[in-house]
């Protein structure tokens, strides 16, 4: 039996290794546009490779039907993944947070061992091969590049991801192939990405970083709250808390909802207590400018912008400010609202949302319900995980189930 796998990422590699281990008689040909396998694996975790997460559930995913992942997570849980890693000689380092890294702390060791496993199983890997078309002639598939045609495939797996990180040759050709075979897909959008806001002061706050509570409002309704790092940038905001909240923010933004975020600089202090603390601070140095005094609480970049938003003159002294103005400062620090207007795009996104509709794919075999012997796995499907190794784990798990199906 002859099998073609489009994409040498985590899902495709796992499918190839699993299938070939179960059936040595398979001929498996893998195709990838890059010069090496697992380019997104290499890029994950800032080069350290956040390879999985030991605390994974379907709640860590969004999409049209997040429950689609349940069977894959049950069949290929973290223990199963750990066992697979040991089988290729890879030891893992599980952090208290649930994040999992290779013990070597280096992504290259992961791709090296996967490459060796593919080689030992006689899997054919065709690199720098951009697939432009896939056809089905009678009951066989034909895979086409610009120069060559590869024929007589019994089964085909589309696992070449979506558009996040185009600098790594990421593209949405998988959706084109799916559409050609009658599949529909949900619109794609950048996920785990910085957010552009409509404020006129963005450049003034560039480089300010602080742990804050970030609240997401969709059509003025509170939808989510996340605590973590916030980094102010020239275009808006980034940082871990923003990347996390971006998933739901951008999903709603893509359907033209009104999306705002509110940043609470002091989440452990309510605005009344914060107001009292500011008032007490101002009383200690009545003849100093308020803007200078506030730098004892917030960044010296934030203080002048804060007063500008509250319509307080920068030369105002502590003994000149009134109670209403102090409350306005406290309120702003507790709920610094910004309207989200765009993202930093696919080039800066860690993952893509949207993709092939899961209602058209079998959740146990990952075979198309529309075309026999056509399979999908990984990011090309309308499933996207939270930051922290969840996306890679879904790629491994879906690839594992496909591999079992390909072997039969």
Automatic annotation (TrEMBL):
Gene3D superfamilies associated with the record: FAD/NAD(P)-binding domain, HI0933 insert domain-like, Translation factors
Any Pfam family: HI0933_like_1st
This protein's UniProt keywords: FAD, Flavoprotein
Ranges for domain RsdA/BaiN/AoA(So)-like insert: 189-350
Flavoprotein is among the record's keywords: yes
Domain RsdA/BaiN/AoA(So)-like Rossmann fold-like: 2-404
InterPro entries (alphabetical): BaiN-like, BaiN-like_dom_sf, FAD/NAD-bd_sf, RsdA/BaiN/AoA(So)-like_dom, RsdA/BaiN/AoA(So)_Rossmann
Cofactor(s) named in the record: FAD
NCBIfam families attached to this UniProt entry: aminoacetone oxidase family FAD-binding enzyme
Protein name in UniProt: Aminoacetone oxidase family FAD-binding enzyme
Source species: Arcobacter ellisii
């Amino acid at each position: 039996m002859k099998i073609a796998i489009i994409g040498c990422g985590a899902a495709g590699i796992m499918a190839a290794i699993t299938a070939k281990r179960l059936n040595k008689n398979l001929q498996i040909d893998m195709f990838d546009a890059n010069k090496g396998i697992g380019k997104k694996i290499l890029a994950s975790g800032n080069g350290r490779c956040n390879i999985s997460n030991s605390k994974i559930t379907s709640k860590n995913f969004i999409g049209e039907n997040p429950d689609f992942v349940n069977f894959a997570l049950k069949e290929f849980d973290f223990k199963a993944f750990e066992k697979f890693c040991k089988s290729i000689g890879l030891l893992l380092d599980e952090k208290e947070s649930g994040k999992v890294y290779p013990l070597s702390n280096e992504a290259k060791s992961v791709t090296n061992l996967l490459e060796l496993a593919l080689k030992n199983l006689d899997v054919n890997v065709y690199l720098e091969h951009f697939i432009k078309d896939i056809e089905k002639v009678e009951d066989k598939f034909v895979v086409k590049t610009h120069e060559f045609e590869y024929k007589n495939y019994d089964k085909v797996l589309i696992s070449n991801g979506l558009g996040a990180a185009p600098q790594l040759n990421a593209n949405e050709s998988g959706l084109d192939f799916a559409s050609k075979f009658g599949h529909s897909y949900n619109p794609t959008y950048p996920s785990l990405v910085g957010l552009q806001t409509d404020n006129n002061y963005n450049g003034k706050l560039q480089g300010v970083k602080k742990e804050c509570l970030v609240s997401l409002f969709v059509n003025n309704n509170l939808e989510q709250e996340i605590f973590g790092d916030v980094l102010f940038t020239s275009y808006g905001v980034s940082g871990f808390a923003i990347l996390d909240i971006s998933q739901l923010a951008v999903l709603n933004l893509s359907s033209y909802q009104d999306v705002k975020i509110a940043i609470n600089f002091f989440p452990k202090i309510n605005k009344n207590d914060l107001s009292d603390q500011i008032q007490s601070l101002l009383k200690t140095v009545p003849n100093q400018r308020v803007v200078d005094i506030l730098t004892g609480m917030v960044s010296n970049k934030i203080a002048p912008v804060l007063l500008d938003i509250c319509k307080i003159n920068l030369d105002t002294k502590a003994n000149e400010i009134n109670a209403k103005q102090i409350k306005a400062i406290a309120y702003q620090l507790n709920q610094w609202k910004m309207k989200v207007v765009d993202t930093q795009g696919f080039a800066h996104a860690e993952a893509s949302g949207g993709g092939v509709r899961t209602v058209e794919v079998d959740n146990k075999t990952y075979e198309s319900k529309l075309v026999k012997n056509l399979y999908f796995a990984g990011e090309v499907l309308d499933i996207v995980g939270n930051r922290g190794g969840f996306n890679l784990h879904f790629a491994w798990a879906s690839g594992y189930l496909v591999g079992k199906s390909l072997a039969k």
